[in-house]
Amino acid sequence: MPRFTYHKHRPNLWEDLDLSDLVNAMSEFLLGSGFGEPADGESQTSREDLKDAIINALMTSNLLPDEDLQKLFSNEDTLNEFLEKIIERLMNEGFIQTAQNGTGSMEDSDDQGEAGGTGAPVRFELSEKGTDFLGYRALRELMGALGRSSFGSHDTHDLATGVDASGPSKPYEFGDTLNLDVSETLLNTIRRTKTLEVTEDHGLDVGYEDLVVRQTEYRSSCATVVMLDCSHSMILYGEDRFTPAKKVALALSHLLRTQFPGDSLRVVLFHDSAEEIPLSMLGRVKVGPHYTNTREGLRVAQRILARESKDMKQIVMITDGKPTALTLDDGRIYRNPFGMDPKVIGLTLKEVINCRRQNIMINTFMLARDYELVAFVAKVSELTRGKAYFTSPYDLGEAVLMDFLRKKRTVGH
Fold it and tell me: With 70 as the cut, is the pLDDT of residue 196 above it?
């Protein structure tokens, strides 16, 4: 009688690997800001770059058992096949895409450049799905540092009538939601008519002046513009400050879509000049050899917020440098690399005052602590009754989300 030996089925390693954990482990690479790259370099993620990033993620994260890793790295052909299959899965499941046409498939890429054919080498970039996923992961990690939080719409100090009563009752006024406080309304009627008699033909004569309604806390919607400084100083001095800032913007975006559906979030980059970018492009933005035109960023943000019909409007400015540039009336850029130029500072503060006149709060998150810079940020916060946080790239996300959710009028140190 023949004997059979049964073994537990093991899928191929590339099928067994959790792609979401892999993408999360590669987030620093996928959201790269240009740190360590030439100042004039473009976003060039080649197939070999992608393979190196996958290998680095495998080596630094517990994505595969040690025995599987040893087998994988013991044979170059096996390793290369594994990496090709993982790239194929990343594309098929929509985490990355080819940079040439924004979509593409592995069949497309196999016909070009590095894949063995002719033409330009294939370049890869983060897809919209990948950007949204990293925003979700960033939010989960950052909120974990805050402990438990109660999500919902933005709290205010005002009250409004509504169905979900949580405040004291008040006399009814025209336009209020008719959420009656029945007991108080009937008591008012009894006090006015001085009778408790209720018959089949004649009930209590409730008058307009007797009506009392319950109140609920008024919840407000908010329009937010995140101003990201992408001047070259954000990756100088041996520190990448821009990638953490991008993670925060992605986390805010995911938070708004899931917990504050009535809110809006827009992103403005400021450097020599300033421009709005779609959130879908945020993951691919890199810094450049630019100055810091804070004034132009504020002007673009104001134009965006002027089109929003929200109760609350705010600018969240993340920067590490003092204003060093202005856009003149004729379109030329005035630059002073030493900073704190009276002309630049004066016109920048003028835009800050314009924000205050439009009831736009500016919350500033500063990644540096120069004495003159601290004084400038303190002045901005004073003029708009906003908040100033002096922080580092390592706790930047926690500071931003604490401010956004709690709405505390305090100065973070």
Answer: no
Give the Cα separation of 29 and 392 in Å (integer). Answer: 20
- DSSP for 150-170 reads --SSEEEEEEEE-SS--EEEE
- Three-state SS at 279: helix
Residues 6+ apart with CB under 8 A from 49: none
**The predicted structure's pLDDT at residue 271:** 92
User: 243-292 pLDDT, tens per residue?
Assistant: 887 888 888 888 877 777 778 889 999 999 999 998 878 877 888 768 89
Element (DSSP H or E) covering residue 15 = helix 13-16
> Domain 133-153+221-406 has what CATH class?
alpha beta
Distance in angstroms (rounded) separating the CA atoms of residues 188 and 154 = 34
**What does the DSSP 8-state code read for residue 412?**
B
Q: What is the secondary structure of 42-65 as a DSSP string?
A: ---EEHHHHHHHHHHHHHHS-SS-
The 3-state DSSP class for residue 313 equals strand
Phi-psi region of 152 (alpha: psi -120 to 50; beta: other; left: phi over 0): left
Q: Which residues contact 174 (CB under 8 A, 6 or more apart)?
A: none
CA atoms within 13 A on the CB side of 319: 31
Model confidence pLDDT, tens digit, residues 327-341: 999 999 999 988 789
DSSP 169: E
Q: What angle do CA 245, 249, 255 make, to 5 degrees?
A: 140
Q: What does the alpha-carbon distance between residue 178 and residue 54 come to, in Å, rounded to a whole number?
A: 60
Spell out the domain ranges in the chain.
13-126, 133-153+221-406, 157-219
